[in-house]
Amino acid sequence: AVKILLSHFSSIGFWGLVNNAGISTFGETGWLPMETYEKFADVNLLGSIRTTLAFLPLLRKYKGRIVFMSSIIAYFTLGNGIYSMTKAAIEKFCDALRLEMKKFGVQVCIIQPGNYAPSTKIQPPVSAEEIWSELSEEEKAVYNKEYVQERANFFNSILSEGSTNGNEVVDAMVDALTSPAPKARYMVAKLKEKALVFVCALFPTVVMDSVLSYALSK
């Protein structure tokens, strides 16, 4: 991509990079094989880092901007810890990069969407039957089909409550790329989702654990 860019657009410069690639799945920690963890880290985290490193010389040269797609799920998780893990890692990578790029005039912005699953289709509804069939014998000995079905129903209900207005996230991305004074972070989420982030950021961990455990128990 860098070679194509340089061969066709070298005369007009390079001003912005948006790292948007991401995949999502559902499952408790022991339900997912190591290969899935590696794939998620490769796409959601290392993919963004690889792209950033490839374009960094051009971005420094033209004092451009780098936008990363994170998520409010970087702060807490309700059934997709593997996705949360990668988004939390991206947040820290961006924090380091943002400070390092200031001396070059390069600005780094993070977009933190709430639940936009119906709009993006990043996470289709999950099937308890498929999850159960893929569990190891060790996990099947610990859990039962009823538990898996309850968790799948809970997660699917969350997905169905997501916003269909994906343009709200796109607007934030455009602002991050074009505003004279872009924000370091754009949280594009419902009030309830922002409240969860607020609790997670400011209250002791035991409080957030209690809130999420209550939600899961319901």
UniProtKB/TrEMBL annotation:
The keyword Transmembrane helix applies. Keywords: Membrane, Transmembrane, Transmembrane helix. Gene3D superfamilies: NAD(P)-binding Rossmann-like Domain. InterPro entries: NAD(P)-bd_dom_sf, SDR_fam. Pfam families: adh_short. SUPFAM superfamilies: NAD(P)-binding Rossmann-fold domains (SSF51735). The chain crosses the membrane at residues 66-83, 195-216. Belongs to the short-chain dehydrogenases/reductases (SDR) family. This is BDH protein. It comes from Erpornis zantholeuca.
